[in-house]
Amino acid sequence: MLFRAHTLEAIARGDVDLAFRRWTRPTVKTGSRLRTAIGSLIIGEVSLAAPEKITADEAKRAGFADVAALERDLRQGNGAIYRIAIAGVDVDERIALREEALSQADLAGLADRLARWDKAATQPGYHRKILQVIADHPEMAAADLAARLGVEKLKFKRDVRKLKEVGLTISLDIGYRLSPRGRSFLGALT
To answer: Could you tell me the residue ranges of all domains in the chain?
Structure first.
C-alpha cells in the first residue's frame, strides 16, 4: 500500500486518518504496520466500503476535497473498495535499531545471519563486502557500488535492504552509509 508524499505529510500533521483503496484483496491487515517515509503507520480497522455510503467527512479525512474527488481517484483498479483506518504513526523501529550498541550476542547473531545469507550469494563473504564497499564509498550511487562488486544493481539494492532491516545501513537520497551499528559490526569482523 503506497501513499503519495503530500498524503504522508497530512498523516504526520494529523489531517488524514483514513485511506480508501480498490483491491481484489486487501494488502494490509487490521493491526499491521506499514513502513513509510514518516515512520511506521499503524493500520486500524480494514473493512469493505460501499461507495454510495462514503461520506463527505470520510473523504476529507482521507485527504480529498469531496466524495467526487475520492471517487475519481478510486476509478483506477479492479475489485472492491476498502476503508483503511490509520490508527497512528510510530517511529520506524529500524531507526532505533541502527543506533543500538552491539552486545556479544548481537554480534554472533548478525554474523550467523550474514553467513546464512552468504550461502545463497554468488561470492563468499558477499554481505560483508557490501558493508565494506558502502563504508569505503558513502553516498555513491547504487549502480556504481553494484559494479564494484560485480553484481546487478537490483540484486545489490535488494541485498542492502536486508542489511537495513537489521540496522546496519542507512539509505540516502543517493547511495547509502553505514549506521553506527553497521560500523561497529564491520569493525568487529575485521
So the answer is: 5-90, 95-189
